[in-house]
Write the structure tokens for this entry.
Amino acid sequence: MSLLRRWFDPIRSRWFYQKPSRQAVLSTQQGLSIYVRLDDVYSYLAVQQLVQLNEILSDELKPLKVIISRQAAAAPNGMSAADWQQYCLNDAKILAKQHRFGFDDSPEIPSADALQQAETILKNTPLTGQNFLHLLEDVFHMLWQQQYGKLRTLYAMASQHQARQDYPERMFKDVPVQASYFEFGERKYQAVDDLLRLTRRLKQQKLLIGNPIFLINHIEWREHLINDAEALNEVQALVPELDLYVALEDPMSWLLLAYIKEELANYYNIQLKVYPLSYQGRDWFDWSLASRVSKRTEVEFTPFCRPTQAATLAMARLFYSVPEAQQVDAMHQILQGVWTRGKDLSFPTHFQRMQARLDITQMTEQDVEALLKQNDVLCQQKHQPDLPVLELRIDGQRFVFNSLYRVWMIESIISNVLEEKYKNES
């Protein structure tokens, strides 16, 4: 790491951490928009919330703009289109079950003919406002639940008796849309995962005329689903195992490891194992998101220096130089040193102090780069679009998920497994 970055990054990080996590006011000039694709399963979930959202929007944000695109963006994290599609279907099924969205038990991507018919219906309908949003939701249900007979009937009416309509709040634009998202004040909010964050923002700016009640089964940070002592003992007796694949230069690795270790692992007797990955180029991250997650998880996150490739290799060498039973605690201390104390472990003095702190008398002779590459392969085999990647094993079942947006699944899975256990025993 350059001398400039070593000195400048901690100063910049303090500024980011101390400034308000939200701007006082985001511009309402462009209103509120949602981008959807008819063949995007996240759009299918998102449109089920639009009628309720539109009902409580202030006049300043009405009409809600709906942008319908036919262009899919590239799959994330180097995934193939097929792997990404399968991931989305599986993930959406989990979200639907958790939040009680309407969803088919065996979802399929709508056929090309059905998508064309649906687009014609939406282009030609004279309905506006809430009526259009109801129609939009109905059309998505027809597409994703293979109600093609109903769709053909509507298509026949739209194509024979209606002409193309032109409303500014309803646009058909071929812009790349990976998954449905809202746009407000030149910021993007994932349509499902960021919906609560968006409504908190709107409420803060007094742009809602009612209380937003969405995703009622959402699990907040530091909220436990199981508090009964007897039930908790039963979960602990199952000895859940959690593997965590982390990029060492990604602050989310620190924030989530610290949160899971401090809040969940001891509470549920989760046997945690960490797999560091080779340098992933994730040291250019969203500073405001990291600061916001830090405050919501109550995990300290400043000052810091962004680890370079050399620094991540040094971190991995330290990690693999402690006994396996101590590696999770070691990784916690290493990441804490980097992300809360600004230690650059490619700098010999910082490295030696961390080595002493971890009580390492002899550095490992293992090929650390080879070990990291092995972890990369294991991680890639999980077919996940983002990092960190998590694999939870409990009661003979295996669950794989990823990123800060799915940490709530740890609580949800444990609760569901316990509920199934009770049902089977009765």
